[in-house]
Design goal:
Elements: E1 15-20, E2 23-29, H1 30-40, H2 45-49, H3 52-64, H4 72-83, H5 88-98, H6 102-111, E3 123-128, H7 131-135, H8 138-149, E4 162-167, E5 179-181, E6 184-186, H9 191-208
Parallel strand pairs: 3-4
Antiparallel strand pairs: 1-2, 3-5, 5-6
Amino acid sequence: MQGRPPLLNLTENMLVFSYIAGKIVIFIDRDTCLALKRRSERADEMETVQGQGQLKLFEELLAEYAGDAGSLITILQKVQEIFGYIPGESIYRIAGSLGVGPAKIMGVATFYSQFRLEPVGKYLIQLCQGTACHVNGSERIGRAIEDMLGIRDGETTADGLFTLKSVACLGCCSLSPVMMINGDAYGSLTPDKARSILMEIAAGEEKAG
C-alpha cells in the first residue's frame, strides 16, 4: 500500500471498521470516524496553524519518547499541553514515532475525556452531568450558559473566550450542581450564579484587554 494508509471505511452503520494496512485493528463509532476523517483531510494542519516554537517542542517530545508505546497517554497529555488540544496531524506523527497504527492513537484519545481533538476557548467550561448534578438541576444550568453565551455543548464562542463541554462526572458530588472552568470548581450552582461567574470572567478579560 502506497502513502498514508486509510484510517477508516465509513458505512451507514453505527459501528464501522477501521483498517490499517488491510487489518482490522479497532472498532470506533461513526461520529468518531467522521471526526477523524475530517482531521485526516487536514494533513497540513500543524504546519499552517501552529507556531514554530510549538512544533519544535513537539519534535523534541517525539524524539524523547520514540518507540515507547507504553507512554502513549503521557505523550498525548504533553501534546495537549503544547497545542492546547491534539491536532489531527499529530496523531499520524505520534503513530509513526511509536510504531503503532494511527487508529490506536485515536482510540486512546477519544476514550479519555481529558483529551481534546478540537481547539478550545481560553476558558473551558466543564459542566458536570453526573447523577447528583442532574438531580440538582444541571440541565437548567446548561441552558442558562448556552443562552448567555449563544453556543451549544461542545461549541466555542465567536470571540474564542469560552468553550462549553458537558462531562459525565467531575467527582465533586458534594458541590452539585458543579462546573469547572480551567480546573477551578464552582459548586452549588443556580442559573443566576453560573451567569454571574461567567460575566465576572468576561468583565475581567475586557478590563485586562
